Amino acid sequence: MYLNQLIGQGGDIVSWLVWIIFFMVFFMFYPRIMLSQIMMKLESSAKKLEQLSENSRRMLLSEISRKPSKRIKDSVNRFFEFFLIQPVDLDPYGMVKKLDHLIKNEHQRFDYFVNQILPDADEETKANIKMGFSGGIELYMLSKIVRHYIEMIRKTKSYQIAMLIQMQLPLIEKIAKALFEGTKALSRGEPIGDSIGPWMTARMIGTSKTREIEKGIVMAEKRIEGRRLFILKAKGPGGRIGYPGKAVEKLIKKYKIARVVTIDAAAKLEGEKTGSVAEGVGVAMGGPGVERSYIENAVVQKGIPIDSIVVKMSSEEAIKPLRMSMIKAYDDVMDSVKRSIGMTKKRSNLIVVGVGNTSGVGNSSKDCEKTLKWVQSYERKLKAKKKKKD
Questions:
Q1: Distance of alpha carbon 3 from alpha carbon 47, whole angstroms
Q2: Are the C-beta atoms of 304 and 353 separated by less than 8 Å?
Q3: Under 8 Å between Cβ of 275 and 234
Q4: Where are the alpha helices (DSSP H) in the chain?
Q5: Beta strand 306-313 with 257-267: parallel, antiparallel or unpaired?
Q6: Are 324 and 157 in contact (CB under 8 A)?
Q7: pLDDT score, position 26
């Protein structure tokens, strides 16, 4: 009698059974259906990344030679697997020296490789190709990591891991595209967002003479508002970063320095304007931290204040070609530098360091004009490309 009442209120028993079976089947197969859909998306993204990586490899080969030999192709393919193993950090003491030693070894291997495949090229071209390979290898590793997780998901059928990778895909694809653009720019010796620090200091140098005081680092002396400025940047216009920390340490040992000022690109938060300028204290310098450590140790020993001036941009913009919105920050940067100068006494010595990759940026204001013209041309191309899409 109770069953008759239930059927009368909610429909016949067959409908109830059909719904129950449907929900059981749905909950059993839904994760598999979702996993297959996610896997299709992941596979498509992995192929895009692998294609970008392969395009960067071909582009580097074309920069090396119009018709690269089998030996060069094999050398490039082998070098794309290059890696650096981080030193043991169980005992932090001596970590900086260990890392410094490994980074020097890495640079030596890159130099040796480029000399082998481009023995007759000039030093600036070799520096550009070296930087291009740095970007290409990073893009290649990114595509390999994504492929690794896809194959792992395929073997384990793990829906949770698939969801985690899918959530990261937009960011991964964005970084990969930026790396490809950066690799192309670096291998051709074109300025990138990270070149803004060297560009600022090159413009400050003006027509003053420069000399190399540390491997890959040039310096000019200039007087501004009654103070003596030692202006440092990586040697351009080839793609270099140099060893700015060791250069600053050398100057601090030789001269009585009142203040150190570092100028660099810095990652902006979403919503912040690209090219906006901020001031702070500390060493504005990315990377593994070896060169920054040398500066920090030197200034701490002498009690020297250190100022930081940053031009804000996203991580992707720092890798991609330089934009006008960043170059327009020059006046604001100079105002910040003058404020730092104003905090010292007359006839004081200051160090100003333009931190970053100096690809496409020379060592004088005349060279800066060439960079500016290139950026203006690049902006026009981007606008024309946007009009075509619209």
A1: 57
A2: no
A3: no
A4: 2-10, 13-64, 70-79, 95-117, 123-156, 159-187, 196-205, 244-254, 290-302, 315-319, 324-327, 330-342, 365-389
A5: parallel
A6: no
A7: 65
- What pLDDT score does 358 carry? 96
Q: Are strands 227-234 and 217-224 parallel, antiparallel or unpaired?
A: antiparallel
Report the candidate in 131, 161, 144, 155 with the shortest Cα–Cα distance to residue 60.
131
Q: Which residues pair with 350 in a beta bridge?
A: 229, 259
Q: Which pair of structure tokens corresponds to residue 382?
A: 């981007």
| Neighbour count for residue 289 (Cβ, 10 Å) | 15
Residue for token digits 């059974």? Answer: 17
Residue among 310, 198, 301 at smallest CA distance from 244? 198
Other CB atoms within 10 Å distance of the CB of residue 326: 25
Structure tokens at 313: 């941009």
Task: Quote the CA–CA distance of 306 and 265 in Å, as a whole number.
Answer: 17
Contacts of 349 (CB under 8 A, 6+ apart): 227, 228, 229, 230, 255, 256, 257, 258
List the chain residues with pLDDT less than 50: 1-3, 6-8, 10
> In the 3-class helix/strand/coil scheme, how is 342-371 assigned residue by residue?
HCCCCCCEEEEEECCCCCCCCCCHHHHHHH
- Residues contacting residue 57 through CB under 8 Å, at least 6 positions apart: 76, 77, 80, 136, 140
Distance CA 208, CA 231 (A): 10
pTM of the model: 0.88
The pLDDT value recorded for residue 27 is 67
Distance CA 369, CA 361 (A): 9
Paired tokens of 232: 């440092």
Ranges of each domain in the chain: 28-187, 193-389
pLDDT digits (tens, 9 = 90+) for 198-248: 999 999 999 999 999 999 999 999 999 999 999 999 999 999 999 999 999
Using CA atoms, how far apart are residues 389 and 330, in angstroms rounded to an integer?
A: 32
Cα separation, 383 vs 364, whole angstroms = 29
Candidates 313, 318, 48; CA nearest to 176 is: 48
- What was the pLDDT predicted at 263? 97
Residue with tokens 């749905």: 26
Classify residue 85 by its DSSP letter. P
CATH topology of domain 193-389: Rossmann fold (3.40.50)
Helix (H, G, I), strand (E, B) or coil at 266: strand
Residue 305's closest CA among 260, 349, 345, 337?
260
